[in-house]
């Protein structure tokens, strides 16, 4: 049996990185995710796997170190929290424009500005709609437990390399700070130089002996060339939307009412479902695990059996817009959220839900 | 079995580590656990709390409004959490520094003068394990052998020599807990 360890979600990110064969982590501390780098510095993976762990001078530097590492076909990542992610958005846009794989973890806190260090999901728009400039999408995974934080690092790298696209793990202060049982998987070794060449030779800047050199850039001054590239990117996103939707449901089969919630709010939402079921109310839950691509078809297929949907978020109502686009006016789509680091408890949500019935 | 616990007191009293040891003890007996701290600009002397859930089944919400047990170590926390104990639930508190005592009559109440007992042991750091002992006397939800295993897991190896002292402190707490009602 694999070892089960009590750890914070943030620690799980660090162990997940080491165990999936990550080549490099570049970061800058910020609450509530500082334990990611603290744990890496404590475990010292450079002594075992050779993974580089580096505290950069800023978030801007971190994301550009990731950019450089990704150019070389390495599995590189960074992590931060909301204000730090804002600083990284320029780099993220360049990485998306250069079609490079990387993993970015955002353990969200309240905003805008420096806001609060308490949990939030206020970066939904920023994350799933791009964040940086230009028409691009990162792949977005939303963990709801410490185990997810551990597992999603490897999964995000797999997706990032499959599509040569940045993948973001969008957590929050609850999932980052909470300790839960995590089952560690057998560690994968880092890729060898030969494996990197076999996988990334068509695009990575890893030495051009015996072939033409690869050029990595996000710049093309000829509008036709740029438009062709944009069309190619959109084709890639269509493929991602067709193939990579991940979601889970809880008591949704016979549901008349549905909560849609991600991350920590999906956990609280499950408890609301349990409380409602005790009162004989047929409430179910759908948890988008990927926020981009969004589980449109899955929500759409439930609409005929539903009387209404409640979107639960730690913000002023962001994901609810995507749900309303899917539902397209067929049934009411309601919203409940708290902001500023406040977290609603299940009883509070149940009362709100009953008023929408 | 499912037990939802809030532990609250001053920073520096060992609130978070008590919760961690309890959570690790749960893992040692193959339960699901969640440990959710108040985090922020907490410091020694400020208020601090952690909710701990032990369950035989998957845990849904780590955020709770009502608790089966409240382990309370200062007045502010008593004021905040007494009303949030489920009817029939348990309150364990340290009466040291408490001027407004609990008034609920629909819950079990135990007090543990842990600072005094720790002083008798000659080890102020035993404080939180004495409190844990008082709780485990009333609700033995984790076996002592699993607490020991949990201590081993949560303490770094250089502190494993302190495990017997911690076990002793838990026993002291079990003996010193006094039923109020």
UniProtKB/TrEMBL annotation, chain B:
Q: Which InterPro entries match?
A: 2-oxoglutarate_synth_KorC (IPR052554), Pyrv/ketoisovalerate_OxRed_cat (IPR019752), Pyrv_flavodox_OxRed_cen (IPR002869)
The record's listing under Pfam families reads: POR
The answer to whether keyword Oxidoreductase applies is yes
Q: Which residues cross the membrane?
A: none
Keywords of this protein's UniProt record, alphabetized? Answer: Oxidoreductase
Which residues belong to any copy of the Pyruvate/ketoisovalerate oxidoreductase catalytic domain? 11-175
Gene3D superfamilies listed in its UniProt record? Pyruvate-ferredoxin oxidoreductase, PFOR, domain III
* Keyword flag Flavoprotein: no
GO molecular function list: oxidoreductase activity, acting on the aldehyde or oxo group of donors
Q: Which PANTHER family match?
A: 2-OXOGLUTARATE SYNTHASE SUBUNIT KORC
Q: What is this protein called?
A: 2-oxoacid:acceptor oxidoreductase family protein
